[in-house]
Specification:
Elements (H helix, E strand, L loop, with lengths): L9 H25 L9 H23 L4 H30 L2 H15 L3 H7 L18 H23 L5 H25 L3 H6 L1 H19 L10 H16 L3 H6 L23 H17 L9 H11 L1 H18 L6 H21 L8 H23 L23 H5 L14 E6 L2 H12 L6 E6 L18 E4 L8 H6 L5 E5 L9 H6 L10 E3 L4 H12 L3 E2 L11 E3 L17 H21 L3
Parallel strand pairs: 1-2, 1-3, 3-4, 4-6
Antiparallel strand pairs: 5-7
Helix pairs in contact: 1-2, 1-13, 1-14, 2-6, 2-7, 2-9, 2-12, 3-4, 3-6, 3-14, 3-16, 4-5, 4-16, 5-6, 7-9, 9-12, 10-12, 14-15, 18-22
């Protein structure tokens, strides 16, 4: 018996129903993951990658071998499949962000819009947020389009490779050419799999096409086996194996449900400064889960059922699978703005409403847009023009730092904005890369990431800024390659790290009077979107508080115990209680513009509340 995927016969249509069923499972997993109710749901993306390869690569190779392949037409059709909904998603996000977002977040959205419109969101995510599990991603409406970026980059780079190989062996028979191209695909599959397995950087292994290609290629390999005939009339019936493979996919993908049912608090945040591993609440390592889903999906696709399955659950998931691309596009936009401006914790009722809205918009998009796409140059140029205009608008917003109105609480005023205005205050500490040890000022060394740079700004805003001079370095490795003798010249060293992370070569070279002081962690909640939407209803908004991200208080207490008296506690002065933190200075300015880093007003507030006394204590001991 040969299994041939041909949409003209009834049997093939039934098999495609099963593919829609798998896509339905995948989109439910992704939806619940982004809603914060299924931390293992990100595995649903693996199903999409494998299915994409299964549906795309066999046809691609056959057209290249038969001489019917046009790279330009291929990219045009792929763009017309993806771009219309992405263009609408960008437009809706920019309009909603205009009314709801504060400048820094609107700037980030405009940056993401440029990346989404150029199919490079995965690259932007790798550079900016760094990790898919970063809590900031929960409030980014377009961050999920990293998947589309990886997929389109595959469309760009892989067909030319196949075409070049085909041209090299152009004198071979067509069947031999197919074998050569399958061998090339198999080679790339193993190379990508090895890169995925042995790449330690989780950001690269998650967002990089070269580490993701094994999933697409694996689907393509199975697709070619199925398309070229595969006997299932064996001692073992694959139609019996398929239900077990499907059940295993569901169990693994939704494995974190055990934690939800048990009432375990789900916390997938990075705690800055804690060096703690992110928790995804899987019963196994992430890469094991990814590969397990890949293998099980391949088994399911190889043995696509030929019989019609008639039950309500199957038909419902098939329906969701048909509109899955629309659900995928809309759900994160709805969830992100709901979190940003209404329900930061996204209670179950709010999540349910977001899910229903996603289904409705996806269905409307499917009926009015996806089913009406005509793969013509006229439609292509129309959507490309719309995309270019939106990218240009997004870039304009980005150049103006997302400022579209006055925000007095941030000292931001329309017409006085400029590119990079929010980051430049924290980053100005980079210029303190040298120090004059011959001056009468007390020499200090400042070590650490942006939290250390924040502390540098607090020093510059303090009463004692004229009594000290400091040098800033990002990490201790600087002195692994430079003059260690310089360390002995500092009287004070402030560092943002754990105490046991200070290298031995530093401790051996400091002078006897030098004190090493730890800089504390800090956090001001996720974002201020809810306040921004409701600020006119508060009689005294300077007293508004919000929940602190779970874990920061515990990390702060742990660091205090490690450093004891040599610790600058940034968190406690802003805590209202164990779970809430203040977000405004006494005169009504934001302490932080992004929940982590200080505004100029925030640095001045800390100088008066914390650092003036601390510096006085440390400087008096170094006279």
């Amino acid at each position: 018996m040969r299994i041939l995927i041909n949409m003209e016969n009834t049997s093939a249509k039934k098999r495609y129903e099963y593919i829609d069923f798998l896509k339905g499972i995948a989109i439910i997993a992704v939806l619940t993951y982004h809603g914060g109710y299924m931390p293992s749901g990100f595995l649903g993306v693996e199903l999409f990658f494998v299915i994409s390869g299964f549906l795309t690569i066999p046809s691609l190779i056959n057209k290249i071998v038969d001489g019917n392949f046009s790279y330009i037409i291929f990219l045009r059709n792929r763009l017309l499949r993806l771009l219309p909904l992405i263009v609408l998603a960008i437009a809706v996000s920019l309009v909603a962000g205009y009314f709801l977002m504060l400048p820094d977040h609107y700037e980030n959205l405009s940056q993401a819009s440029v990346a989404a419109g150029t199919m490079s969101e995965n690259i932007l995510s790798a550079i900016t947020t760094g990790n898919y599990w970063n809590t900031e991603n929960e409030f980014r409406p377009l961050m999920h389009l990293w998947y589309v970026g990886v997929l389109f980059q595959f469309y760009i780079f892989f067909p030319p490779i196949l075409w070049i190989i085909k041209r090299i062996f152009n004198n071979k028979e067509k069947e031999k050419q197919r074998i050569i191209l399958r061998t090339a695909l198999l080679t790339v599959f193993f190379c990508s799999l090895l890169l995925f397995l042995f790449t330690e950087d989780e950001t690269i292994s998650f967002y990089g096409l070269h580490c993701r290609f094994h999933e697409i290629a694996a689907g393509g390999l199975i697709g070619m086996i199925v398309n070229n005939g595969a006997s299932v009339d064996r001692n073992i019936s694959f139609n019996r194996i398929t239900p077990f493979a499907t059940a295993a996919i569901i169990i693994i993908t939704f494995s974190s449900l055990i934690y939800v049912i048990s009432g375990t608090e789900i916390n997938t945040n990075y705690i800055i400064g804690s060096n703690e591993e992110i928790r995804t609440y899987l019963l196994f390592p992430k890469k094991v889960g990814l590969l397990s889903i890949e293998i099980l999906t391949l088994i399911s696709l190889y043995a696509l059922p030929t019989n019609r399955i008639d039950n309500a659950l199957f038909r419902s998931l098939c329906w969701l699978g048909k509109i899955s691309f629309g659900i995928f596009i809309w759900h994160q936009i709805i969830i992100a703005f709901c979190r940003y401006s209404f329900y930061p914790n996204l209670e179950i009722a709010a999540f349910a409403i977001c899910g229903v809205l996603s289904f409705i918009l996806a269905y409307i998009s499917y009926i009015l847009l996806e089913k009406r796409i005509k793969y013509s140059w006229k439609q292509f140029f129309a959507w490309i023009t719309a995309d270019v205009l939106l990218v240009a608008l997004s870039f304009f917003i980005y150049l103006h730092s997302g400022v579209v109105r006055d925000v007095p609480e941030l000292d931001v005023y329309l017409g006085k904005e400029h590119r990079g205005m929010f980051a430049e205050y924290c980053d100005r500490i980079y210029q303190y890369d040298s120090i004059d040890f011959n001056s009468n000022k007390i020499p200090m060394l400042l070590v650490g990431n942006s939290f250390a740079r924040d502390f540098g700004n607090v020093i510059l805003e303090s009463d004692y800024c004229d009594n000290v001079s400091f040098k800033y370095i990002e990490d201790w490795d600087y002195y692994a390659d430079n003059d260690l003798q310089e360390i002995s010249k500092f009287n004070l060293i402030f560092c943002f790290c754990k105490k046991d992370e200070i290298p031995e070569y530093v401790l051996k070279n400091i002078n006897k009077k030098c004190r090493i002081i730890g800089i504390g962690t800090k956090n001001y909640g996720t974002n201020d979107g809810v306040f921004n939407r409701n600020k006119n209803i508060y009689s005294d908004y300077t007293k508004v508080v919000k929940p602190i991200i779970s874990g920061y208080v515990q990390v702060n207490e742990k660091l205090k115990k490690e450093w004891k008296d040599d610790y600058i506690d940034f968190l406690s002065p802003t805590l209202v209680d164990s779970t809430h933190v203040r977000i405004f200075t006494d005169d009504g300015h934001y302490i932080s513009h992004d929940g982590r880093h200080l505004t100029p007003a925030g640095a001045k507030w800390y100088a008066t509340k914390v650092v003036n006394n601390e510096l006085k204590k440390y400087l008096s001991k170094n006279k």
